[in-house]
Amino acid sequence: MTSQRDDVLQIKDISKSFSGVEVLKSVSLSVNKGEILGLVGQNGAGKSTLMNIVGGVLPADKGKMCLMGNEFKPLNPFMAEKMGIAFIHQELNLFPNLSIAENMFIDSFPLKGPLRTVNFKAARKAAKAALGFLGVSISPDKKVQELSMGQRQMVEIAKYINRNAIVIIFDEPTTSLSHKEKEMLFRVICGLRDKGAAIIYISHILEDIFELCDRAVVLRDGRVIKEASITEFDSTTMIKMMVGRDLKQIFPTVDKKIGQLAFEAREIKANGVHGVSLSLHEGEIVGMFGLMGAGRTEFAKAIFGVEKIESGGVFYKGEQINPITPRNCIRHGIAFITEDRRYEGLLMPKTVEENLLCAFWDKLTSGPWKWINVKQEGENAAKQIKNLQIKTADFKTQPVRNLSGGNQQKVVLGKWLMLEPGVILLDEPTKGVDVGAKYEIYNIINQIAKNGSSVLLISSEMEELIGICDRIIIIHDGLVKGEFHKETYDSEAILKVAVEGSV
Amino acid sequence: MAEWVKKLSQYGIYFVFAVLIILFSSISRVFLASGNIINILQQTVALGIATVGMSFVMISGGIDTSVGSVMYLASCAGAQMLNKGFGIPAALTVVILLGLLAGSVNGIVITRFKVAPFIATLATTSIARGIGLVTSQAKMLFLGTASYVIAGTRWFGIPVTVYVLITVVLLADFFLNRKSFGRQLLAIGADSLGAEKAGIFVKRRVFTAYLICGMLAGLAGFLSTAQISAIDPKFASGYEFTVISATVLGGTSLFGGKGNIFPGILMGALIVTIIENGLNIMNASPYIYPIVKGLIIFFAVMVDSMKSSGEMR
Amino acid sequence: MLSKCYKHVLLAISKRTIVIMIILLFSISALIVPNFFQYGNVENIFIQAASLSVVACGVTFVVLNGGIDFSSTSIIALSSVVGASIISVDRGYMAGNPLSIPVAIMVVLLIGLSFGAINGFAVVVFKMPSFIVTMATMMIGSGMAVYYTKGETINHLPGAFNWIGNGRVLGIPVILFIAVMIVVVLHLHLTKSLFGRQVFAVGTNPKASMISGIQVKNTIFKMFLISGGCASITGILMTSRLQSGAPGLASNMFVDIIASIAIGGTSTKGGSGSIIGTFFGVLFLTTMNNSLNMAGVSWFVIDIIKGLIILTTAIADVVKKEAN
Predict the structure, then answer these.
(1) Of B124, B133, B295, the CB nearest to C300
(2) What range defines the domain where residue C189 resides?
(3) Domain with CATH 3.40.50.300 in chain A
(4) C-alpha to C-alpha distances, B225 to A280, B95, B103, nearest whole angstrom
(5) Given an 8 Å threshold on Cβ–Cβ distance, is C211 in contact with A415?
(6) I need a labelling partner for A490 at 20 to 30 A (CA). Which of A73, A185, A338, C299 fits?
(7) Given CB atoms, is B114 within the 8 Å cutoff of chain C?
(8) Sign of CA pseudo-dihedral A267, A269, A273, A275
(9) Cβ pair A326:C201 closer than 8 A
């Protein structure tokens, strides 16, 4: 009996851990020739890690993979690419100052003649053919900087057509595409499938998964929940599987009162934010949930002045903050813990003390020369370290980059808490933090709220939000699409709103 | 970016060229005389060749401030070889080798040791000039008749050095536009990390760019001394600023990824030379030159910077 | 109080290998170079170091942001001729006027600060790379200096002015007092003031600093102002020492400035370094200059050595950063 399925790529029992945290637990799945497999799961479910292993970016700890029946163990992305894996990332790797044809052949131009000059004619022809294969007709001489996002994506795909890709992985390809461009992309992907490619399509837009994919895999917490033909799924069950009931984290509780309105953001419009309003009360912890790219971080950056705001107003205790700059916001008592602590939250080579104090220095000055009271510096730093239980060998000399993720995050928190802010915006504060430190951070957040401050907690971890927030707002495509109160928390419903934009 | 800035940088150069010619020819009748035109061409040769070298480095996103000193070192060596009777081919070979050596030192320090280009080339400036001064013992080097051969030879009425410039420009255009080296250099200038990811050997290409720059600086130095009878210890001191101005004026961006050999470099070098020549003819105070040069670089780079979003360093 | 200063100084010295290097250099020179300790040679070293240290410490602020300030040498020259043109006894604008010296000093400071402001503005507002901006202002500045005096020097400066560079108080040269005072003020400012802390933060990571509420643009702008101001003060000191205003003053000084800063431990990538380090770097460099000179080494060979110093310290800096 011949097998109807000829698996192009087989993944068997792949496991992977990062610093003791298991990210993939014995994952197995397969893709065959001429099919589109949808890969679905929440943030942190393990989709990117799995694809990075397939793409040769990371090595697996356990398990094995087979490509076209042979063992497949790419040591680096170049090897994976050579063996036929085309990984089309969200951030395109194109050179805007060069033409489409040049971009496609930049590392291996077709050469001609005794002088080994670039055979532009051949490159152009191949580029045109690749684009044609995708059903796209753009002149291959056009410079990439003149192309729209959708067209650029086509070029990125075309790059791999030429390299005879066997498996093509699409990672959230539609985030920057217009509706028309998305339709064109789907046509192209189906065309590729019809010509025999094995395609893995990662997306959080379930509607697209159902439209495009032949089969689907749902990942949750590093495990495969179900792998089956798309006809065996429906939106509701898929969401149910994505959310699950594995609550392994225990959340601290605290007795607190919610007071008056403290902070208001009205109709904020910015890049990626299309009109979001938010109000925070004293003592309230408000969660902001949404998928990646929904506009949460963009919103926070806009109201703090890190990114430009197009329109809308920010008010603290009734007073409008104008102009919206980080310095001004800080002056009014607002703090912002960014998502990217390495590049935006910390001065990595500098000491723990310096990092703790860098927003607080102006409060320690005296005299016309604005000299810093060194003794107070040390005292304040020591106090913060004790309060937050930051583990550091010597806060005056140890550079922050030598601390663990959890402790680094505490330093960031410490820096802001020193200002005793009335409003704290937290963007993914427990990302890359171990379980123990996570609990400590939740405690800190609770204490902050108990003392009367307002907290906005942006997070992709549903459990965390359900665990400590009084209210959860859901952002979808730059707009607020839902709000849930503590008493009526329903993780499936919340995810549904985040994914589909409506209940 | 504002449309007018784009159009300005594209066509502005021709406009400026025309304005300068009109300006200077109306001020002085001598300006367009054939003798002066030959003069201008001769002076543009050295600048043009050095500018070609600088372009390759700038396209890759770097900078080379040692050009003036390398020119001095090479011209000292070349002059001494000629004076000792070695003949032009031998002298030329030594000059080119020295230029390559300087370029390779810059290249290694920048690619292998990852030192910032302006600091690395600042250091090689002192070293190269110092070595040159050792050979000349910080004295004026007088040139023998061989230099007059270089300067005086004309083919069809045009100095032979101009043909060298044209050859260099054509070769540079060839390497930039017809060989994968040039296309990859442009990619590196646009996004060096992305270039690494795309499989380009970034270190090798950038190293080659500095080699080319050093070699052409040497050649430029050698050819320019042909026009003067003696090499002063301060020869070409600070010349790199002139070269950078000509490069940026010619359309190459300081930030990398954009470069225009033909006609950009020629235009840039011509404009800078014409301004100097014109000022000279106008009998403008020689003290004005550095002020004018400084202002030119300032505004050329200002326009360049407005088009890209650099850091504030 | 005094013992606290003493302890502080000892601590600063013990942490730096540069001090060991200076001691080594001194010892080797004493052995090899004839007359090293005679005819006031050592004092000469310190006097030369005085001028260099003021300008090098000023430029250090710009280097702490990962930039460079080429215009400092031109500011020195321009300050020299403009200042001299005001106070000169036979040709100055305020010749004979008792206020001529203070006015000249004010004017000269203004020149330095203006250049600093232009540099800072171009870097912060137009986002132009500092090396190009300051290269351009350097050319403009030195052109202006030469143009101003048509290449001549301005002599016959009042005795009171010349005393700054050549006089003594309690046997110690005044110029040394002034230089040390300025270096100490700058050092304290960098290590103890709000601005100093912000300089290090901005030089390390401007984005994170901005988010923490630091006014990044203002800080960078001030760095350039300080550099310009220090250069103009150096102009005063050097002019006084020379007893005349010279348009070509300090034209070869830039390599010394950069070499001192580099060997003093300030990273050219920004974010770390110190004024005291630069000061010791200056001492090392002037001592080296002096002893090699006296040993008969030509000035251009010394230049090669300086270039090699810059190169090795830059490479060492990168290697150190990678090792972390």
Answers:
(1) B133
(2) 43-314
(3) 7-243, 261-346+421-500
(4) 75, 12, 20
(5) no
(6) A338
(7) yes
(8) positive
(9) no
* pTM confidence score: 0.90
- Tell me the pLDDT tens digit for each residue of C198-237: 999 999 999 999 999 999 999 999 999 999 999 999 999 9
Asked whether residue C307 is assigned to any structural domain, the reply reads: yes
Dihedral over alpha carbons A281, A287, A289, A292 (to 10 degrees): 100
pLDDT one-digit tens code per residue, A180-233: 888 888 998 998 899 888 999 999 888 899 999 999 999 988 899 999 999 999
Question: Which of A81, A103, A106, A146 would you mutate first to test chain B, the one with the most B CBs within 10 A?
Answer: A106
Backbone region of residue C200 per phi and psi (left: phi > 0; alpha: psi in -120 to 50; beta: other values)? alpha
The question of ipTM being above 0.85 is answered as yes
CATH architecture assignment, domain A261-346+421-500: 3-Layer(aba) Sandwich (3.40)
Q: How far apart are CA B105 and CA C107, in angstroms?
A: 44
Pick from C189, C194, C204: which is nearest to A347 by CB? C204
Search chain B and give the residue with CA nearest A102. B183
- Do β-strands A365-366 and C168-169 pair in parallel, antiparallel, or remain unpaired? unpaired
Residue B302: partners with Cβ closer than 8 Å, 6 or more residues away: C122, C126, C128
Tell me whether residue C37 is in a domain.
Answer: no
Residue B182 lies in a domain: yes
Domain tally for chain C? 1
Q: What residue ranges in chain B does DSSP mark as E strands?
A: 141-142, 154-155, 158-159, 230-231
**Within an 8 Å CB–CB cutoff, is residue A164 touching chain C?**
no
User: Chain B partners of C128 at a C-beta cutoff of 8 Å?
Assistant: 301-302, 305, 310
Q: Tell me how far apart the alpha carbons of residues B115 and A434 are, in angstroms, rounded to a whole number.
A: 37
Residue C65 falls inside a structural domain: yes
Q: How confident is the model at residue C22 (pLDDT cuts 50, 70, 90)?
A: confident
Of B174, B186, B198, the CB nearest to A107: B198
User: For residues B4-16, b (16+ Cβ closer than 10 Å) or e, as one string?
Assistant: eeeeebeeebeeb
Touching partners of A (3+ C-beta pairs < 8 Å): B, C
Q: What is the 3-state secondary structure (H, E, C) of B16-68?
A: HHHHHHHHHHHHCCCCCCHHHHHHHHHHHHHHHHHHHHHHHHHHCCCCCCCHH
Cα distance between residue A119 and residue C96, in whole Å: 78
Instruction: Report the pLDDT averaged over residues A258-263.
Output: 92
User: How many Cβ pairs within 8 Å bridge chains A and B?
Assistant: 51
Residues of B in contact with A116 (CB under 8 A): 179
Number of C-beta neighbours around residue B62 at 10 A: 27
Q: How many CB atoms lie within 10 A of CB C173?
A: 20
What DSSP character marks residue A422? S
d(CA A444, CA A449): 9
User: Which architecture does CATH list for A7-243?
Assistant: 3-Layer(aba) Sandwich (3.40)
Residues paired with residue A424 on neighbouring β-strands, in sequence order: A335, A455
